[in-house]
């Protein structure tokens, strides 16, 4: 709750400092057709992310890929729109996948592997953005203010990745042993996940495919932001948006506890606008456009998810 309130305050400050008139004028130029194209692009990106999760499950048949794409969409919608952090979205995404027939041990283990390959892919994506930052704009006065934030964010992301890998190696078994004292069967469940993780990581081709698909999704997301600016009538260079989006996602990752990265995204765009050579009201308009996209894709997704959950409850009672 505190993180949400702080995020809303930061977002309100960013829009207020820039001026709502310019932001709304920038958003208004995209039109209904342009907004639909923007949403459709990101729907394709979510399908790629679902395929990355499916690849991590290594032995699930190809026909089940849609289940992973749907669960990935639920996972993102819950993280962006419900009052949860990213962790809440992960829980709902895994629950959705299990409800659609994927074994629990495989769904949970594949989720951990997918998160790992996604984090490694994001690191590559971020390093690409940092490289563009130093090649193109690092000499300016605005860039000097951002360098500490960029280094701190990247270091935090690397530390989180290392901790996540360590948890996979030792933490799951330890958590299972502790939980077994209170919950019968917890140790068995933890051992099953560890066994499944070993089986997945032994399939290097599956892990590599998951990484490549996640990397493609990161670059596809940045290209989608560039497309959004083009649809708004702003001819920004693609390299500038790759730089901006990689750094924005780094900030979002560090602030994972803030639901939907409220305020983090907006303040980040405001800081990066002069570095990228793009008007602040345009980038804040892009941020508003992304929020509208989250609603346009997320609300129908959550309504369908709730309908499926309700049907499963009714079927369970009838059984």
Task: Give your account of this protein's structure.
There is one protein chain. Residues 174-184 have low confidence and may be disordered. The longest helix has 39 residues, at 141-179. Helix 6 packs across helix 9, helix 7 (141-179) packs across helix 8 (186-202) and helix 7 crosses helix 10 (238-254). The chain starts with a helix and ends with a helix. It has helices spanning 2-18, 20-28, 31-56, 65-81, 86-99, 104-136, 141-179, 186-202, 204-231, 238-254, 264-276, 280-318. It has one domain (29-310). It has 319 residues and is mainly alpha-helical.
Strand runs, count: 0
Structural class label: mainly alpha
On the 0 to 100 scale, the average pLDDT is 82
Overall domain count: 1
Write the layout of secondary structure elements.
Blueprint: H1 2-18, H2 20-28, H3 31-56, H4 65-81, H5 86-99, H6 104-136, H7 141-179, H8 186-202, H9 204-231, H10 238-254, H11 264-276, H12 280-318
Give a brief rundown of this model.
The chain is an all-alpha fold and 319 residues long. It is 84% helix and 0% strand.
């Amino acid at each position: 709750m505190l993180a949400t309130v702080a995020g809303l305050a930061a977002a309100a400050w960013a829009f207020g400092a820039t001026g709502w008139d310019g932001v709304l004028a920038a958003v208004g130029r995209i039109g209904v057709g342009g907004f639909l194209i923007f949403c459709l692009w990101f729907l394709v990106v979510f399908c790629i992310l679902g395929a990355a999760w499916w690849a991590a499950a290594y032995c699930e048949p190809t026909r089940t890929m849609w289940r992973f794409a749907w669960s990935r969409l639920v996972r993102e919608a819950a993280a962006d729109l419900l009052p949860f952090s990213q962790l809440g979205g992960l829980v709902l995404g895994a629950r959705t996948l299990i409800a659609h027939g994927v074994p629990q041990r495989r769904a949970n283990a594949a989720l951990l592997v997918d998160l790992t390959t996604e984090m490694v892919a994001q690191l590559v994506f971020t390093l690409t953005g940092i490289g563009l930052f130093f090649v193109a704009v690092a000499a300016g006065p605005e860039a000097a203010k951002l360098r500490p934030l960029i280094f701190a964010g990247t270091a935090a992301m690397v530390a989180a990745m290392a901790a996540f890998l360590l948890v996979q190696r030792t933490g799951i078994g330890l958590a299972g042993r502790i939980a077994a004292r209170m919950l019968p069967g917890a140790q068995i469940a933890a051992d099953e996940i560890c066994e499944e993780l070993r089986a997945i990581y032994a399939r290097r081709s599956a892990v590599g495919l998951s990484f490549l698909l996640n990397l493609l999704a990161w670059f596809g997301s940045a290209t989608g932001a560039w497309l959004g600016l083009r649809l708004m009538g702003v001819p920004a260079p693609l390299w500038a948006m790759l730089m901006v989006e990689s750094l924005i996602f780094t900030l979002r990752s560090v602030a994972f506890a803030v639901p939907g990265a409220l305020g983090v995204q907006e303040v980040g765009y405001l800081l990066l606008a002069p570095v990228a050579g793009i008007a602040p009201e345009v980038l804040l308009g892009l941020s508003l456009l992304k929020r509208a996209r989250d609603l346009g894709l997320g609300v129908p997704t959550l309504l369908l998810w709730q309908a499926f959950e309700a049907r499963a409850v009714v079927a369970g009672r009838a059984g």
